[in-house]
């Protein structure tokens, strides 16, 4: 069984600059011109180009928007080099909204990608 999470982005090349280039997730497939699969550990992340203002589903009044938004589903990146990964993400346009370090728990940063999607960076425990 394979696991994949798909992320809507307004422009595929912008999504690739962040997730592939800045976060280091290699491209493994491009089944159609507007959809790319990236390797993320033992899973995959799909980036799909969807324009701002388009409807995510029939029968809804909701529209896609790419400013910061809350969603109950997000990705946690468990990394060995917490500071390097977080620095690369922020330098590529992510926002670090909260950061917790120290104590017995691993460091964690609550972030948003350049498209408003939340994600966390989780380091290793001290």
UniProtKB/TrEMBL annotation:
InterPro entries: Glyas_Bleomycin-R_OHBP_Dase, Glyoxalase_6, VOC_core. This is Glyoxalase. Pfam families: Glyoxalase_6. Signal peptide: none annotated. It comes from Methylocystis hirsuta. SUPFAM superfamilies: Glyoxalase/Bleomycin resistance protein/Dihydroxybiphenyl dioxygenase. Residues 1-124 form the VOC domain. PROSITE patterns: VOC.
């Amino acid at each position: 069984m394979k696991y994949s999470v798909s992320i809507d982005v307004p422009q595929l090349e912008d999504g690739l600059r962040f997730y592939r280039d800045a976060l280091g997730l290699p491209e493994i497939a491009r089944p159609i011109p507007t959809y790319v699969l990236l390797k993320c550990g033992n899973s995959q992340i799909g980036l799909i180009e969807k324009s701002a203002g388009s409807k995510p589903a029939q029968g809804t009044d909701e529209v896609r928007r790419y400013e910061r938004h809350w969603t109950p589903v997000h990705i946690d990146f468990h990394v060995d080099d917490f500071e390097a990964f977080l620095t690369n993400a922020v330098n590529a346009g992510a926002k670090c909204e909260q950061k917790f370090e120290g104590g017995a728990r691993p460091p964690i940063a609550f972030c948003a990608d350049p498209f408003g999607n939340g994600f966390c960076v989780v380091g290793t425990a001290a």
